[in-house]
Amino acid sequence: MRVLIATVTAGGGHLAAAAALEEAWRRLRPNDVLEKVDVLDFASKFYRKIYVETYVKVIEHVPELYAMMFKKTDNDEEVQKADSFRRSFAHHTNKGFVKYIKQFQPDIVLCPHYLPLEIIGHDDKKALPKPFMVSIVTDFEAHAFWLEPAVNFYCVAADETRGSLVARGVPAEQVAVTGIPISGRFSEKLDLLDIRRTYGLRDDMPTLLVLAGGFGMGPVGEILEQLDKVKGHFHTLVVAGRNQELREELCLKERKHPTQVIGYSKNMHELMAVSDLIVTKPGGLTSSEALAMGKPILIINPIPGQEAANSDFLLEHGAATKVNRVEDIPFRLHQMLEKEKLAEMGSAARALGRPDAALDICRSVVSQFEQKTLPKVLEDARGSELEIPYLRSKMRAVL
């Protein structure tokens, strides 16, 4: 079987989801031909720069504009009006990826971002192969962009996500509740004592993990200033992502509580494992990683749109609490550290967690693909004098 995982550099979550899917598929089906690509690698440098930087700058400087755009484009009628132009634009500005698809000829395409769905979905000349297309929604609510006619199968985060897709007209049998794909490292058994020793963490003090996302965005400096106002004793780990300027700025200041500032981290599973509370924006991947490890979340400044929806989901299920202003952190955190709230939220988080989501997605996709492919193979072979040899050769090629 030939399998393609197609993602996009638009926030670290989509890349992490693609990596988790690759890890899981190779574990499940090591003999398949598997490739993982970033669609933007096939585009011009100018297009890539505009696509990535526009998203980051709008989120950082004018989130209200992003919220308006998100809501406007999540309207089914408005999306249908713009569908033809949107798919055509995506297809013609990503001709390198179109050429790659023709050459690779995948049987299955896993998409933890909606752009590949748009590109392959717009095939006005019917020149592209027709692979089994899988939309892997990486938030707890599915925006209309994920709903492409070319999609054969959806993998979603929760029952609520599935219910929303079905309400929008997606056949129920085409949607599986699998969770958001995360690395298998988040289900490993870890030596917590060794990790604590590595970071100099005391057993008698809670640890807070403050995350700035892959791009190092958000009011991290203001958050640390407010943590200085919190009474009691705790240790703070800060991950500044790829933002070296932010990391250097944070390291220059003295803190009331023991604080360590880390750059981009490849051992997030270890940092989460030794943390008692995660302070972060509620991205789909970060939230799923925290839930898988049973860690409560303190939500600050969710991005309007998908992160606001994620926030609602986490709050509704009791796995998180939220502050609308950084100035509210001291009071809220003091409440949480004084009572048994962290334990309650941790239990709620663990109940929602799906540490094996990536493997579950791969298994579900293979099952659905076989159900779709086998009847066609039987139909093509029926009545042929070479029916049995034909079936054997076709099934070997497919599976």
How does this structure look, described?
The chain has 399 residues and is of the alpha/beta class. It has two domains: 2-182 and 356-398, Rossmann fold (3-Layer(aba) Sandwich); 185-352, Rossmann fold (3-Layer(aba) Sandwich). Helix content is 49%, strand content 14%. It contains 17 helices and twelve strands. It has helices at residues 12-28, 45-61, 63-73, 76-92, 95-104, 115-121, 159-167, 192-199, 220-227, 244-251, 268-273, 284-292, 306-316, 329-338, 341-352, 357-381, 387-398; strands at 2-7, 33-38, 108-111, 132-136, 153-156, 175-177, 207-211, 235-239, 259-262, 277-280, 297-300, 320-323. A six-stranded parallel β-sheet has the order 2-1-3-4-5-6, sandwiched between helices. The protein starts with a strand and ends with a helix.
Label this structure with key terms:
399 residues; six-stranded parallel beta sheet; Rossmann fold; 12 strands; alpha/beta; 2 domains
